[in-house]
Amino acid sequence: MAEVTVSELAKSVGAPVERLLKQMQEAGLSQKAEDAMVSDEEKQQLLTYLKTSHGEASSGPAKITLKRKTTTTLKTGSGSARKTVNVEVRKKRTYVKRDPQELETEAEVEAPEQVAAPEPTPPVAETPVEPVVSEPAPEAPTRSSFVDDAEEKRLAAQERRRAEEERHQAELKAREEARREEDTKKEQEPVPIVPTAPPADKEDTKHGKKKERREPKDGDEESKHRKRAGKAGKRTLGPKKGSKAELYALVEDEGLSDEVLARRKSMRAQHKASNKHAFKKPTQKIVHEVEVPETIVVSELAQRMSVKAGEVIKQLMKMGAMATINQPLDQETAQIVVEEMGHQVKLVSEDDIETALEQELSYEGEAQPRAPVVTVMGHVDHGKTSLLDYIRETKVASGEAGGITQHIGAYKVKTEHGEIAFLDTPGHAAFTAMRARGAQCTDVVILVVASDDGVMPQTEEAILHARAAGVPIVVAINKCDKEGADPERVKNELVAKEVIPEEWGGDTQFVEVSAHTGAGIDQLLEAVSLQAEVLELTAVKDAPAKGVVVESRVDKGRGVVATLLIQQGTLKHGDLVLAGQSYGRVRAMTNELGQDVKEVGPSSPVEILGLDNAPSAGDDFAVLSDERKAREIAEFRVEKERKEKLQRQQAAKLENMFAGMDSEQKKVLPVVVKADVRGSMEAIQASLAEIGNEEVEVHVVSSGVGGITENDINLALTSGAIVIGFNVRAGAPTRRLAESEGVEIRYYSIIYQLLDDVKSALSGMLSPERVETIVGIADVREVFSSPKFGQVAGCMVTEGTVYRNKPIRVLRDNVVIYEGELESLRRYKDDVNEVRNGMECGIGVKNYDVKVGDQIEVYDVKEVAREL
352-370+538-637: which CATH number, 2.40.30.10, 3.40.50.300, 1.20.810.10, 3.50.50.60? Predict the structure, then answer.
């Protein structure tokens, strides 16, 4: 490289000319002006000085040790004595960094005929080390006979370097003291704090944007300092006080402006403050508000209180209860634990989520009259389907070209008195299943009875279903156009079933109709409308929709298809619907004519798509606004149904029928009776009616002839009854339904066994009889005052035995004046549990003033089971 001027050198290295001249003078060079020339040797001298002053001369490792490990396998022996031995060979080689002057000295004194010579680049000499295992080590390079002289020269060079280093350390110490004096003077002056932004020299590859790179300027001392600090591997802004790093920092700060020094000092203070731990240990106990549901596990309770589970278990042990980490606790126990540990309790019910949902669904607004919802029921082949078809064809499809395109099980009929909504349910099973889930979607029931057949078994079941649901009945006497029709006979048979016509002083409307000719259809619809006016059915239209699921299915290609009946509000396209245990947004809506609609009002059936799974018939549905909340409620209902199913399986057992009944009311045992013949059924009913007294009785929910059907199981489920089969059995689908719903079925072939089991169940429902027996009498002979026990009666046991833990009566002149319990029973100075006849004792009576001459009567109470 050719000679350059000082100004050109300063421009090439990016430093001020004044600072470069100062550093050159400190390095021992003679340049003092900007136009002075600098040779290559002077540049090298300046570079060596800067490296020495910045601590880079001694940087880098002085010794490197390399290790290598190899494993080989040897097989020895033959036959059964053959063995495999693993041989591990370890090698270690150490490389020592040599001083260049020492290498030059050795090169001069070594003989020219040496074979091995140190490598010139890099200047590292190889020093072999003996391996761990017995492997021949590499031979060391030979040296000449002048090795001792070289060693002396190398030691002399080391002494020279040590002296130079001591001189350099003394100079650094002097500069440090001078710098501290200047800092002490400057601390008295206010120093402006200028925030600095982090260098933005990296490319943001994630967003495809390139950040601007700040190029260092000639006078930017701080940027060059950062560059040097980065090269030296410094990661902190503030070196430790008194360390070697602080000395280097002070040296590097030399010559910087006051603004840069102030900024650097501020950055070091901020870095020191950022390293300070921000967490402070709480000085007082933190009180949490713990939500306690009806049942909670120990581990979850501990988590809500922010304590370890062992602390909760320890508290339970203090209370006398042994528990594990996964054991559930009832609400009362959990409440006591939380209060004992110093936290606040918030009792939460499992039904709070349902209660909050009901409060959220507000139907405040103007209530408008709505159409009644009607279900047609009756015996098989009595004309239900024909009646519905006639109403549908004449009242709905008369104005439609081509008739009805699609029928979804529900439709509306326009009459002179208003609209009527009909539900086309498949028999009693669906109606019972819907009522079993608490759905009250039907306002009026049309009971169809054939005039030529009269009242049949399914007609009686329909009456029972309607009464159990509390729905009014309108009787349609069908087939009045046939020969042999006798409507009066039907009326007489229904009167026997307590369905009395209005003309006979009852409250049930009877209409004679014919589904074949259409006679009386208008009068039937008018009777239904009149019944709806009496009920005064209203609904709010301008509100989120709410109603009941009529039926649901899964179609291939369409997904879940659900038929809904809106009872309140208006259902719109895109609404979020929560139906039982399923939820989803309405993707499509069609009415009973198969036409796409955008919104549907109250008392209207509609078929929707979009639910995640098929809901059950009778499930309530509502429109929500939060999808997350809908999912939480659906999951809660799934868990709740599982628990209720387990409870029903226990409650439906015959032995547990009397559990949970109110003792003040008359207890009833509901049963469903099925027999093989009518004579046996009537005999069983008469015998069951005679069993019972003023406290308990048997209530026959339903009775019939034939096998046990699924309808009997659904009816028993809704009424909490047991099913009794006399010489009849239940089919496989019926048994599976009974097992899944927890309904008990009992089979009998002897009527006396049936009656004995029912009597035993009723006897268990009776309240037990309390019998008192006097076990001991003691006469009061003297009364003493004790500072510990108060008044103590000195007594003589005259009859029986006086027990400490039994109730007592105090008699004065053969009149009972006090009833209570003993506070203490002592004989001499010892506490005893009993004192026999003829012995003296001391009796302490709690909360009573005993006098001489009183008699203390000890008695026992036993509960004796009663029998019918």
Answer: 2.40.30.10
Output the CA angle 340-344-345, nearest 5 degrees. 90
Specify the range with the lowest mean pLDDT, choosing from 233-237, 277-281, 440-444. 233-237
Q: Which residues pair with 773 in a beta bridge?
A: 860
Tens digits of per-residue pLDDT, 114-141? 444 444 444 444 444 444 333 444 444 4
Q: What is the mean pLDDT of residues 726-737?
A: 89
Q: Enter the pTM of the model.
A: 0.43
The mean per-residue pLDDT over the stretch 323-335 comes to 87
Strand order from edge to edge, sheet including 745-748: 696-705, 667-675, 722-726, 745-748
Helices (H) and strands (E) in the chain, counts: 22, 41
CA gap 808, 774 in Å, rounded: 9
Q: Is 769-864 in the same CATH topology as 352-370+538-637? A: yes
For the ranges 4-8, 151-155, 406-410, 748-752, the lowest mean pLDDT is seen at 406-410
Asked if 62 contacts 97 with a C-beta cutoff of 8 angstroms, the reply is yes
Q: Please say whether the beta carbons of 288 and 342 come within 8 A.
A: no
In CATH, what number does 371-536 get? 3.40.50.300
**Reduced DSSP (H G I as helix, E B as strand, rest coil) percent helix, strand, coil of the chain, to 5:** 35, 30, 35
**What's the pLDDT score for residue 777?**
92
Query: DSSP letters of 660-718?
Result: T--TTSPEEEEEEEEESSHHHHHHHHHHHHHSB-SSEEEEEEEEEESSB-HHHHHHHHH
Cβ-contact 570, 599 below 8 angstroms: yes
C-alpha to C-alpha distance for 42 and 29, rounded to whole angstroms: 7
CATH topology of domain 654-765: Rossmann fold (3.40.50)
Supply the pLDDT for residue 464. 81
DSSP H helices in 319-421: 331-340, 352-360, 384-395
CATH architecture of 769-864: Beta Barrel (2.40)
State the helix-helix crossing angle for 331-340 and 309-318, rounded to 10 degrees.
100
Q: Where are the domains of the chain?
A: 4-53, 289-348, 352-370+538-637, 371-536, 654-765, 769-864
Mean pLDDT of the chain: 75
Assess whether pLDDT exceeds 60 at residue 321. Answer: yes
